[in-house]
Write a structure and sequence with these properties.
seven-stranded mixed beta sheet; 11 strands; about 120 residues; four-stranded antiparallel beta sheet; mainly beta
Amino acid sequence: QVQLVESGGGLVQPGGSLRLSCAASGFVFSGYAMSWYRQAPGKKRELVAGIRRADGPIEYGDAVKGRFTIDRDDAHNTVYLEMNLLTPDDTAMYYCHAWNYGQLIYWGQGTQVTVSS
């Protein structure tokens, strides 16, 4: 069955870094656009970053441009999110998302990122 398993979340101080991973299985990973979304308490889920193919194109949410980097490893069915210069506003549940450019969409269970001193 389809699985998206996120990892790498945790508690980090402001200005710190984290690297999230999303391991995918159960579908042809290379044929899917992969994205990271996040949702903070009381807020809508928002796009953090998306990558359509191994060679791009890539898009980032305005709030994370210049600080976050998305990358994918099709050989290992994994997508990553490198997060730098974290602030308390980045505190949220981060979700992995897969889309086949058609009607199939998959979501992971999420990994919590908390930025606090």
